[in-house]
Amino acid sequence: QVQLVESGGGSVQAGGSLRLSCAASEYTFGTYSMAWFRQVPGKEREGVAHISSSLWTYYSDSVKGRFTISRDNAKKILYLQMSSLKPEDTAMYYCAAGNTVRAAFDQAAYKSWGQGTQVTVSS
Questions:
Q1: DSSP output for 18-52
Q2: What local confidence, expressed as pLDDT, does residue 27 receive?
Q3: Which residues contact 54 (CB under 8 A, 6 or more apart)?
Q4: Rounded mean pLDDT of 33-38?
């Protein structure tokens, strides 16, 4: 399994920006499909953004046009650039890795998960 460590979370005012990072331990990082998920207490975890090994990207409707997912395979880091943040973006954000992902936000296909990083957006 890939070890994943997220960073970059914090508190920001509405309209602000944050960049999350997810560092991977596996030297074959570039072969994995990667994604960001988020979860609010009491709610189900939801997919936010996905990037395949061939750099195809997919976003949830709620973040499309505001968030950008990218990866640096040489550094083994996944990024999530978040702009125009809204209070409803407040959540714990998790990165995940999988090598047999068929649907972008099929959580069962992601076998490795980070511990999460908290994002809080105030109005």
A1: EEEEEEE--TTGGGSEEEEEEE-TTS--EEEEEE-
A2: 84
A3: none
A4: 98
